[in-house]
Amino acid sequence: MRLLKVATCNLNQWAMDFDCNLKNIKESLTMAKEAGAVIRLGPELEITGYGCEDHFLELDTVNHAWECLKDLLLGDWTDGILCSFGMPVINGSERYNCQVLCLNRKIIMIRPKMWLANDGNYRELRWFTAWKTKDQLVDFQLPYEISEALQQKRVPFGYGYIQFLDTAVAAEICEELFAPCPPHAELALNGVEVFMNASGSHHQLRKLDVRLRAFIGATHTRGGVYMYSNHQGCDGGRLYYDGCACVVVNGDLVAQGSQFSLKDVEVVVAQIDLEAVASLRGSISSFQEQASCKTIVPSVMVPYRLCQSFNLKMGLSSPLKISYHCPEEEIAYGPGCWLWDYLRRSGASGFLLPLSGGADSSSVAAIVGCMCQLVVKEIANGDEQVKADAIRIGHYTQGQFPTDSREFAKRIFYTVFMGSENSSEATKSRAKVLADEIGSWHLDISIDGVVSALLSLFQTVTGKQPRYKVDGGSNIENLGLQNIQARIRMVLAFMFASLLPWVHSKPGFYLVLGSSNVDEGLRGYLTKYDCSAADINPIGSISKQDLRAFLRWAAIHLGYSSLADIEAAPPTAELEPIRSNYSQLDEVDMGMTYEELSVYGRLRKIFRCGPVSMFKNLCYRWGARLTPSEVAEKVKHFFKYYSINRHKMTVLTPSYHAESYSPEDNRFDLRQFLYNARWPYQFQKIDDLVQELDGERIHMRESGDHEKLGAASNGIGGMGVVAAGSGNPNVGL
């Protein structure tokens, strides 16, 4: 037997905070060595933090990374344990994203990343060069200070593996796993048995299984030990890295870390018999044949043994059932952990949320409540770091710390219902009940006096008094009156966030939380600089459909039972007067349902559909209920208001990234914000297709071909979405 104990980890690193990052790395090394591991794998770019972005272009960032690596190598941190550290390295004129492999206070080799992540949220080609030389390892001259300190001048640099006396180990860095021809396939044929994947992977709803299937697939048909390490937490941006460090052996998961956690360091250990890898490979004829004519990958020989022989004191890790969170849990825990990191690292003393009693702001409130529950739970489990942060943020006196989530919420969370003459008693009551359940410090204020003052000023200046549509006003007047209320709430929210701590003799400031969802951002159904404008937004890329499912889940599992009533209420902005024959509803105002918006969003972004492609696709999807002409009107309506409102995404509050069809303009969805909203060429193409389809239907009807006519009427895979009312499509401009 060749017994091997390995350790991989989740680390909560903070971009550009080298002290924090080095502390976490050292703690993970201590834990790995105490567990008896002989291999320790850390996340991608762990020394600097993954999200440094243009700081990677600064020589200081690279130099500081070398300084931290020198600190690690001059101590006993790497004694008796193979360590993989992630950091940027400059070789010649190029900057590379590298894994530095170290053992016994020496650098064994430096492995640069070959396939860079350069889509979605990632822009690695902006900062790094991809390593393209695959047939040889080159000599890399270490920086002078490092060379002098380590008494080591040169190290192998490039694509290759390390051949020990008893096994072969190689690095595969994040995106390389998902490349069409991943390195692990070639490395396995060269005899590599242990693959170390250092990653910087962010959370996205329902996507963990994609990652785990890749690890399983990498070793199921070719054998091997696949180690995966990831960042966990908010390292300074919109992403939450969702950990889930794990070890897979021959297609079986044998160790799995948490996906969501408040811990700064989590180490996952597995004990493996490498003879199981050799046995599987020897039993696969095609593997044997391909290995016999493989392309030779360069290697570095290290005269050192990693494995132990047969030893009953060292048990083997058994296959585990993969642990998945349901989407509702992901919405609770992911943004909740992200908010905690943002709160503790920003220097703020808490959060303030304009709580309307509607689904979106109530979802945000519930997520903050979940965060408070997680903090209290981790403190009860003995996490001293969480405890110290909570004592500091909550301003507890000597010897006190949070033991109840509601009491903790009272210290760090303000909710404010900003009612107007258009607000209903139902939403006011729902906001109050939910605030009581969570434990927030709740205020109930009226904004009518402020709105009246502004309207009086306007009337004095112009001599005109705008009226609501239900009172005979025009669309322009109606929209202007709604926007005044919405924007006043934003101003008041920031005023209360900065001054309420002073009122209550608390130091610091409170962060204002936004509560617009991804569908409203996509459609532009929000007022620019209303309560969607905030410091951060935990639900900014979560769909309305998912939020409503989350509310139903949270009513039971978080203990906030009032959320069930909030979810059941029809969505409304409550910006227009309520009359016996009129009540404002979001879906009527938008001219489309939230279900339709989700479909449009996925087709536009995930499937990269323009107006014509979307029309064709929806003719199949919705053909059972809608004619081609009706589908065309829906597609045109969406693209008209999407393009009119695209400019709002340029000032969108920084939001937690959770959805692959997010319209967020900063990095994820890069498109112009000035459109010809009439889309003349594309819409004419759609009109031509409608005319052609109508002609086919008439021809089939006249020819008596009822079977084809029925197929044309029913469509393929119809989703049965009911057409929405037109209402007032201008609301929220």
TrEMBL record:
Residue stretches spanning the membrane: none
Highest taxon listed in the record's lineage: Eukaryota
CC annotations in GO: cytoplasm
Reaction equation(s) it catalyzes: deamido-NAD(+) + L-glutamine + ATP + H2O = L-glutamate + AMP + diphosphate + NAD(+) + H(+)
Cited Pfam families: CN_hydrolase, NAD_synthase
Keywords for the protein's UniProt record, in alphabetical order: ATP-binding, Ligase, NAD, Nucleotide-binding
NCBIfam families: nadE
Protein name: Glutamine-dependent NAD(+) synthetase
